[in-house]
Amino acid sequence: xxxxxxxxxGKVPLVEPExxxxxxxxxxxxxxAEDKPVVHIRHDFEPGGSIHAxxxxxxxERVFTKTEVSCFNGTQVLAHLKEVGVERLVIVGMQTHMCLxxxxxxxxDLGFECVVIGDACATRNLKYxxxxxxxxxxxxxxxxxxxxxxxxxxxxxxxLGGK
Length: 163
What we know:
Blueprint: H1 17-33, E1 39-43, E2 62-66, H2 77-83, E3 88-94, H3 96-109, E4 113-122, E5 126-128, E6 131-133, H4 135-146, E7 152-154, H5 156-160
Parallel strand pairs: 1-2, 3-4, 4-7
Antiparallel strand pairs: 5-6
Helix pairs in contact: 3-4
């Protein structure tokens, strides 16, 4: 769920999406090199609903379009993962506190082992009442909530073993 509208000039620009997308692209390249299954999610939202060029699907990779926050809600993602025998998910994406968190929690509840790549995700500042919560705090809080309960949270270097 790394789409054009999350980048500068988009409808929902995030804080530093470029760095997160670059790390997601590294994870994606490693999975492709090892011929592991790759699934892309896009939210049916315009303008800017295309998957960002840095992580664009290639031929043979499945793309699921969703209309809800969780990629499991109203899609065939679960059926596909079961069909290809996936038991462990490595999850990257945007926004950390929304789509990524929803997907991780749902996947865990559905019995998947989940690994979230914390530096391959990005989010934005949030407002609650008269308070602005900085994106870095939203991101850290969300990852802290997921880590150890719903997922193992690691960085790109750890996942790739220094590659």
